[in-house]
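Journal club prep — side note

Before the paper discussion, L.F. wants everyone to see what a predicted structure for a comparable chain looks like in token form. Sequence:
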Amino acid sequence: GGSCPQKNAEILSSQYGINLFLAGLLLTFAWAVHAVGISKSHLLSYLITLMLVQLLWMLWYLGRSCTQRRLIRDKDTHAGARWLKCGITLFAVITLILDSFKIGYYIDFSNCLSPTEGIFPVTHAVHTILQVYFLWCHAKDIIQSFKTLERFGVIHSVFTNLLLWTNGVLTESKHQLNEHKERLITLGFGNITIVLDDHAPQCNCTTTTLCSIFSQGIYYLYPFNIEYHILASTMLYVLWKNIGRKVEHHQQHKTPFKFHGITVGMIFGLIVLTSTIAIVVVYLIQIGRSKIKSELALTMFYLHAISVLALMCTAGVVALLIYRLEDRSLDNSKNPARKLDAELLVGTAAGSWLLSWGSILAIICAQAHPKYTWYNLPYSVLVIIEKYIQNLFIIESIHREQEKVNDDIKTLRVVTISRGSTLSLTPSYKEPYNGRATCDSGGVPCLFKGSIRGRENDGSGGGAKEETSQENSSVMHSASDFSFYSRNSVTNNKRRILKNIAAFLFLCNLSLWIPPAFGCRPEYDNGLEEIVFGFEPWIIVVNLAMPFSIFYRMHSAASLFEVNCKT
């Protein structure tokens, strides 16, 4: 009887959030295209209002939780992992630096900027601090009281962060577009007549040096702000899905991250990360300087990316083959966090796939092909294949059941009968007990079964029979133990390989996040796609797909970190 009202509340709150988002999206679009009567102050006022409403809700929730702190609440052990909280905290700290730069920028241009441009970064900074605290304390909550009100509060927070993410993406994309036009001219594409301004202030700066630092630094910090808001929205969405949920109470094993056993994967991953940073630095220095330097920069980028993607495909195939050799069931229990992870992997991968198919089609249809564009073909094909393989590996990994580990200490009493004497040993084990053990003294394998005779048989049989029985038993137990430990050795080797692959792919995804996040975007600078599709249509496609492609890499890295801890 109670499920119908709650389902209605879920539908109503989701529709409220969607309408909230669509209104903000249209306001953002209207500002971007210079719609009549719409200015940046209108957009910022809308965003400030949404943040203030969310702040009021979070303060109310924190206050109510404080008064009820003695109550035992259900928790979703899969939501709000500690490493995820640490990641969002790091992005939030850099976002606060971005807000301080915006405040400094407003002070320098205060004569010709709207007051909302000064209020917005202050409100955003307060919003960021309180939201990170809220997520640290309550991301795992399963809300069972005031459920209807809480649904609206949480979904409001989800779409507020999505709108802040959209605003950051648009601002950063406009900046990238201006640089992209200058680079295309150096490559010989001089027929671009579209002029887009960057909404620069129409007055002089009070301190020229500081203005230059603030204006340039803002755009280098935007990638972290974008990742912060998308991570916050996903964590809040899981909280929304958990409202009113009934959970099974069972012990969740903690899976801490350990560097032991992943040295090889870390070394190769760090090599890829270091080389990627070097490639990005050289690319940003060389691109746009001259036609020859720009072509060399593009060629260098494609060759490096092709090598990295080929290694990632190989590692993913090896991991999947290991999974095929194992016979382990999948965990199909209800888990909103895991379901969202899988959906985000496939959904955001579509952004890269769209760009890759656009590049492949442009290469096929173009009449002229500069030499560097041919490297774009294997690069685009490998991007598609690598995401196929990696998504399959991650989704299967997070759905695989963990091996059953008995944490209780098994106290085993070893009784050895030897010429009328009894020797008791009590070794303790934390590994799963399968009826076999190895005596600490002498390394003699022992098998414990109900057939062990007690002291009442002492002296009733001959010594020869006892010795013969012990020898036969020892041979049987040695063979059995050898098979058992060999199987364990194979399993440990497989696990070690999988952990190294996960660590390698984790660092590779971080490496591939860096280039597009910091302006190294061959989809902009290649020039071939603009010829085939037209400048404006292709730029629209890139601006829509690129944010999802960037988020995919960061989300994949987070998922692979979880896989490494779980393996």
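L.F.'s comment for the group: Residues 405-461 have pLDDT under 50 and may be disordered. Keep this in mind when we get to the figures.
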